[in-house]
Amino acid sequence: MAYTTIDDPSEYFHIQLYTGNSNDDRDITNDANAGDFKPDWLWIKERTSTSSHQLVDSNRGARYAALSDSTNAEDDDQNRVQAFNTDGFQVGSASTVNENSQTYVAWQWKANGGSASASGSESGLNAAYSRQTNSTAGFSIITYTGLGTSGSGSSPVVPHGLGAKPDMLWIKNRSSNSTDWALWWNAENSAATNVFQGFDTGAHGGSGGAAHFGDVAPDATNVSLGATPGSGDTASNRTNTDGDNYVMYAFKSIRGYSQFGAYTGNGNANGTFINLGFKPQFIIIKRVDDTGSFFVCDSVRDTNSLGGPNTQGGAQSQHQQLFAEATDAEGTYNSTAGDFLSNGYRLRSTNASTNANGGDYVYMAFAKHPFVSSEGVPVHAE
Asked: Helix (H, G, I), strand (E, B), or coil: what is residue 201?
């Protein structure tokens, strides 16, 4: 069996840095490290100032953003992202994506080029949906309308199109304010099995969060939807309010390209090693048995971590970190550092947010390049 099915991750994922100039109708052209793809999911964050994370996709349309740091309904702004281009994207004059002299990062994923792979009308327990799927990259963007009904053996479902059980789901109510995200990790074989989480700093919801998914785990075909809040959740329903519109991002791990899982911290400065089977360029880490932020790190912004543009490495590797649940500007942190290595990610800190002894964590990671190519040859690219 081939070690990986994706020899060039840049065909499906890219990180672009740029500086704002406040000009309308501005094309952001991806640099030479990008593959030849039109992005379908953009996640943009202003680095130098306080600003919300802008999550925009081609299913909903460029002008509509969900905010990972907010429980608000999706935001409509025609001056934010204006188009998905074949070599990048276009932004307007909105300060959240193009304020003069401010710096930004844009994480980009490819789905199906903006064209629906499948769609369906409401029928019985089948919710109305539209979906674009990139099965090669293990990624689907799904928009659907809630049905509001659920119960034992009668939960509404949405087909995710991945062909295997998802490893991670992110769902946001587009219509309702004061409704948090519903995040799910298939973190099996760990103490953090089936993690249910909002974009917040709290510990995960455990079995109580399963109500958001009708108390039924996603399978190889469908995601089940709940109708009642989880234990301790005072917000309105996160996945299935009758008539409300939702967006779902569904992922499954692709060997040599992406991985979604869990690890246990060891509390050591020569910390836990996450064996990914590829050199990562993007990773998110969240502690789930206790409080902790969603740490968002990448090797393009990082100038000091091993594997970054200006490699220094060692036990004091630094990260230019952002927090998915917060509007904070980017900061440099030694206390939660780690190294981007050829076959995985090494924690370089004793900080409880990423490496407490016995702490439970979940992560998502995307590759710069696989450790071994589809032909079984070790990859030595930087």
From this structure: coil
Rounded to an integer, the average pLDDT of 74-103 is: 97
User: What's the token pair of residue 277?
Assistant: 């089977």
The single-letter code of the amino acid at 59 is N
| Of 114 and 108, more confident | 108
Range 81-99 average pLDDT: 97
Over the range 271-300, which residues count as b (16 or more CB within 10 Å of their CB) and which as e?
bbbbebbbbbbbbbbbbbbeebbbbbbbbb
At which of 75, 109, 143 does a domain end?
109
Q: Sheet containing 81-85: which strands, arranged edge to edge?
A: 26-29, 88-91, 81-85
* CA-closest candidate to residue 90, choices 113, 56, 139: 56
Q: Is residue 381 in some structural domain?
A: no
Q: In whole angstroms, what is the distance from residue 260 CA to residue 283 CA?
A: 10
- Please say whether the dihedral angle defined by the alpha carbons of residues 123, 241, 62 and 46, taken in this order, is positive or negative: negative
Per-residue pLDDT at 166 exceeds 90: yes
In the chain, % of residues over pLDDT 70: 84
| Helical residues (DSSP H) of the chain, grouped into ranges | 95-98, 352-355
Continuous segment of H or E residues that includes residue 360: strand 360-370
Q: Residue 60: which domain range?
A: 9-109
**Three-state secondary-structure class, residue 206:** helix
Contact 162, 181 (CB under 8 A): no
Q: 150: pLDDT confidence band, cut at 50, 70 and 90?
A: low
Tell me the average pLDDT across 165-186. 91
Radius of gyration from C-alpha coordinates of the chain: 20
- Whole-angstrom CA distances from 247 to 140, 183, 368 are 10, 12, 27
Q: Of 370, 373, 313, give the one whose Cα is nearest residue 337.
A: 313
Say if residue 291's pLDDT is above 60.
yes
pTM for the full model?
Answer: 0.91
Look at residue 3 and tell me if it is in a domain. no
302 neighbors 289 (Cβ within 8 angstroms): no
Q: Which of these three, 76, 109, 142, is where a domain ends?
A: 109
